[in-house]
Structure formats: structure tokens, C-alpha cells
Here is the input.
Amino acid sequence: MVDLHRQYLAIKEEIDTAIQEVINSTAFIRGPQVALFEQELASYLNVKHVVACGNGTDALQIALMALELKPGDEVITPSFTFIATVEVIALLGLTPVFAEVDPRTYNIDPESIKKKITSRTRAIIPVHLFGQPANMDAIMDIARQHHLYVVEDACQATGATYVSSNGTTYKAGTTGHIGCTSFFPSKNLGCFGDGGALFTNDDQLAEKIRMIANHGMKVRYYHDTIGVNSRLDTLQAAILRVKLKYLDHYNKKRQQAAAFYDQQLSAINGIRIPIRMPAARHIYHQYTLVVEKPDRDALRKHLEAKGIPSMIYYPVPIHLQKAYTCYGYKEGDLPITEWLSKHVLSLPMHTELDNEQLEYICREIKIFCSNSL
Here is the structure.
């Protein structure tokens, strides 16, 4: 699904030098590279504050802690997402409320959000799934009307952009009160281990986030709030500083691969290619098809037999997962989400895909679909 080795070889000298500099300094925790990376990412995102942390899940948890939500408060979010989005809500004793998604974009549907708001609703977590920003104009309008916080899960969308109705272009994660991202190795901006970050334009929230991520400390050994231990180590920051310089190039390469898939697969009956929304710049963390006909799982087995990896993101929606049955959802409550889980299939998508590989993948899909008619 990704080729991290070839990506590394293309920038090997820069990466090796950056790592060696950290080893020589022995400043492995909170070394100068961390602060420099935060500044550089803030500049790239055009946001006032970036706080690096241990991983994307920590980023989401720290964001909710910074908002001082109380047990029982409701947080509206999609069920069609990676578990971390909802996991942190449950861990903090908050109540996840699942909204439906747009069947074209797989992102949370603002109309469904409106229907889920109650007197206990405190926040919305939209997920910019697979690299395409959600409809943030509509979501922010709802949040303002009902005095709700918005925490953007941009863990799959670092570098994606959204053009607001006022003509302003925003990077994913910078429209709401807090944005969160992950630097898991397979992400568009990935490190060589775990890593994450939060971003905000709110000075007070930024100060609180930084304290929470560092055991609740502003001054060493003086704990002003209950916090956690979530740090981006210096080695990862040094690697990310190198890779951040190439992020726009990486995203462009993914878009070019997606355009190839689009051109080759758009005419196949029963297969729907990803929809690009006019206001959003999709960066294709995943290239995800909807397979109505032929059988999705049979297609996946055919590709596997031909040495082509594929993945199902996500085979069971969160509201139907065993760990989350306590919230009272049942099959049929979110029909679009449930239908998508049975029909989506993600193809290889990374910066090192070449035309020969893309042609082979598309040819095998066409062969299978033709033989299945």
C-alpha cells in the first residue's frame, strides 16, 4: 500500500544527516529540532500555534482535555473513521454521538449533525477522511449557532486545503478551534515512528494544550492542570523537518496517481471513483473506490492473487464494534455508513507509484470486472 523505503532512498542523505545531528547532540527529548519543527509546521499551515505530541490519538485526547468537557457531555462525530477518533471520547467519559456521512465524500454530513444536537452536545469532531476536507463552512455555521467546539481530525489530511465561501483558503485542521494530526509513517507527512501535533489560533488554548501534553506543567515541577506525557521525540522532529520540505511534492505525486486511477477506472460499470468536492483539495491519503458490482471481496482476492495489495477502510463501522455496544446503536441506525463499509476498497497510494505499477493495477481491475459481467 505504501513504499516507504523508496521514499527514504530519495532523501536518504538529508535524513541520515538530520538523524546523526540529533545523535551527536544527545538531546533526544525536547531537543531544539522539536521547537523548530513546530514553528515550520505553523508557518506551512498558516496557524499561530503548533504543539507536537506523541501521536495522533494523543492529539485528539489532549484537544478534548483542553476544552474541559465533562463526563456525559456529547461529542458528535462520524462512525465511518479510524477508531482513535471515538476512542478518546470514550476514554474521557464523554458520550460519542454518531452522525451519518455524505455518500459521495465519506465525510460527516452537516445535515446529520443538525439532527443529532441535544442540550448535552458540546463539540463536533469532523474527520477529513482519506485526505479530503469535510464541509467546514457548514460545520462552523452549526457550531456557532449552537455554541459548540470544533476539533478537526486532520490525521489523514495534512496539507489538504479548503476554500471557504468568503474566498479564503485554509489548510485542513486550521478552521476549527483545534486541529489534530498524526505523523504515522504511512501518512502524507510521516515520521519513522509515532508522532502527532495539535494546532490552534487561540493563545489560551495553545498554552493549555502545551501544559497538558507535558504533565500539566508550565514551570518544571509545578503542575497547574492534570496532564499526560505525550512528546514528539527529537529524532522524529528532525526527520519531519526534512520531509515537511517535500510535503507539497508528495501530495502532488499522490494527486497525479489518483488522476491516473480516475482516468482508467471511471468508465467501469459498478465502480465509483472518489469524488472531489469543488471547495476541497484532496491529497489522497487513501484512494478509495466504492465497489457495487462486482463483489468487493472477490475483487480484493483477485488483486491479492496478482500481488496487488488493497485495504478496506473500514470493514465495521464504530457504532457496530463490540467495544461500543454500550452506546445503544444497532444495525440500520446509520445506513449510509453501514453500506459504505460493505463496498469500499482502497488501492495502493503513495509517492513512489510509477506508471508501470498503476497500469498493472488498473489492468487487473478491468480484467476482473470484465470477467465478472
User: Anything to note?
Assistant: The chain has two domains: 4-99+107-244, 247-372. The chain has a mean pLDDT of 97.
